[in-house]
Design goal:
alpha+beta, binds 2-acetamido-2-deoxy-beta-D-glucopyranose, Glutamine Phosphoribosylpyrophosphate, subunit 1, domain 1, disordered N terminus
């Protein structure tokens, strides 16, 4: 079904557009969710002569400024101690360099810091307060990421006995009371239930930009799962999980329940399918089905684009999440286009 929808879109683009096979044209900007301003910013950055890295940095950075859906940037998704912490990555598909930060505190422009990890260190991933110190050295302001909104989300959560939360097999019973918790000697295994909490606040901007010459760059930025246990890092800053870029094959980015998705390296897998010539929509679908086989009820979606500018997306169908919206900008259109796929 999702394939059919995207095929119709591609046919429409083919009719509308002057160039490219299968409705594809370069450059292309594609990002998760209906984060239109991010798409516009990335596109404008390219038009003004910026590189693909600049476009991804500025595009995802726009969401950090806009606090997209409260799930990117400062003032969203307070953790169990009420603090907002950020995860971001950027990947250069020409050099295969990755810069990433995780559990970044007190610095708003997480993807900007991730870019500096590429440019000013030989590392790939910096975390926690040490990443903040690095950011300050790189000239980023050290600020409070708390807002009235994040405080009120936090106090509402405290007032509802810290529900929902991410603990299990602890005392007191984490499904009824707040911590601090101690571990239960007897560990029981239960089937994972659908996490409703992120479905309505989306969760991550993931972006793939492919330049005119076929350079692929990907990136992500998020403030992670709301009420996460401090120290938790999701899929977003992990190369191959949150996003992946390889200028010889394509780019992909994932959004959803990172704790589940990062175990499958979905972005890496999607790029590898495209390397074998798989259509981008099908590549995304195959990645979703692979996870489905193990965790039928996971919340998640993937966007995929190959080096000739064809793109697609797929998502896992669960109650409350049956369609996934994403944004595309290419020379075949005069403004960012919101697209929808039916989940499989
Ligand atoms: C806490 O929840 C109760 C109802 O369970 C409500 O009466 C009270 O106003 C809430 N307090 C705050 C500070 O939200
Ligand atoms: C990208 O995908 C399109 C649509 O499936 C396909 O026609 C094209 O050959 C692909 N490009 C590459 C480089 O594989």
């Amino acid at each position: 079904m999702a394939a059919a929808v995207v095929r119709i879109v591609l046919i429409a683009l083919q009719l509308a557009g002057p160039c490219g096979a299968a409705g594809a044209a370069l450059p292309v900007v594609i990002n998760t969710w209906a984060f239109r301003k991010a798409t516009e910013t990335a596109w404008r950055t390219l038009q003004l002569g910026g590189s693909e890295l600049d476009a991804v940095e500025k595009g995802c950075g726009q969401c950090e400024i806009d606090q997209c859906d409260g799930s990117v940037g400062y003032g969203g998704s307070p953790d169990e101690s009420g603090e907002t912490t950020l995860d971001a990555m950027i990947m250069n598909g020409n050099t295969m360099e990755v810069g990433a930060v995780a559990d970044l505190r007190h610095v708003k422009n997480a993807i900007g810091v991730a870019r500096k990890v590429i440019e000013h260190t030989k590392h790939t991933l910096l975390v926690g307060e040490s990443a903040s110190l690095f950011a300050v050295r790189m000239g980023f302001p050290y600020e409070d990421l708390t807002t009235q909104r994040s405080l009120s989300v936090y106090s509402r959560w405290l007032n509802q006995s810290c529900q929902p939360n991410y603990w299990k097999n602890v005392v007191p019973d984490s499904s009824k009371s707040c911590g601090p918790y101690k571990r239960l000697e007897k560990v029981s295994f239960e089937e994972e239930t659908i996490s409703q909490r992120n479905i309505h606040n989306h969760d991550t901007i993931g972006m793939v930009v492919i330049g005119k010459s076929g350079t692929v760059v990907s990136g992500t930025s998020t403030n992670g799962g709301v009420h996460k246990i401090p120290g938790r890092v999701g899929d977003s800053p992990i190369a191959g999980a949150g996003s992946y870029a390889d200028s010889t094959a394509g780019g992909a980015a994932a959004t959803g329940d990172g704790d589940t998705m990062m175990r499958f390296l979905p972005s890496y897998q999607a790029v590898e399918y495209m390397r074998m010539g798989t259509d981008p929509t099908v590549a995304c679908q195959k990645v979703i089905s692979r996870i489905q086989q193990h965790v039928p009820k996971f919340f998640g979606a993937v966007i995929c684009a190959n080096t000739t500018g064809s793109y697609g997306a797929a998502c896992n169908k669960i109650p409350g999440f049956t369609q996934f919206h994403f944004m595309v900008f290419s020379p075949l259109q005069s403004q960012p286009a919101e697209q929808v796929v039916d989940c499989i």
